[in-house]
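Minutes, project check-in
Item: structure for the 143-residue chain
Input as provided by the requester:
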Amino acid sequence: MLYPEDKRGLILHDVLFAPFFAGAAGPGQIWHWDQYVAANNLWHHFDRFAQVVEGVDPAAERFEPSMVQHERLRIYRLKGRRTTMLWLRDSRAGGVVEGVTVKAEGKRARVFDPWENRWTEVKARGGRLAVPAFTTSVAIVMK
C-alpha cells in the first residue's frame, strides 16, 4: 500500500483526480516535475488516473458533476449518458475506510483502488454497491 506509509504522492494524486471528478475536461497539472514528481518517482500516479478514464469519452457522456459531503468522505459524481463515475476521497486521509455503500446506477460496477493498483468487480444488491475497504480514495465506474 502506497499510503499512508508513503504520503509523497498524495498531492499529485489529488491534483490528477480532483479536477476531473469536479467536472474539468481532464486532470490537473503540476509544475514541480524535477523537485516533486521525478525526485520521488511518482510517475505511476499518471498511469493510475489513465486506467480510471480509459475508454471514457467525457464529451459524448456530457457528464454532470456533483459532490456530496459525507461525515468521512467527499463523494464526487460524474453522471453521464451511459456511464456514472464516482471518486470517494477520505476527508480525514488516515486509516482504512470500511462499510461504505453507494447508490447503484447500473447493474455492475468496477472499483479501482489507485493505491493498490487493483480493480474489483462489484454487483449491485438492493440498488446499492458495497465498496471494498480502501485507504485514501477509490474510483468507481458504473455502466
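Outcome recorded: The chain is about 20% helix and 35% strand.
No further action items on this chain.
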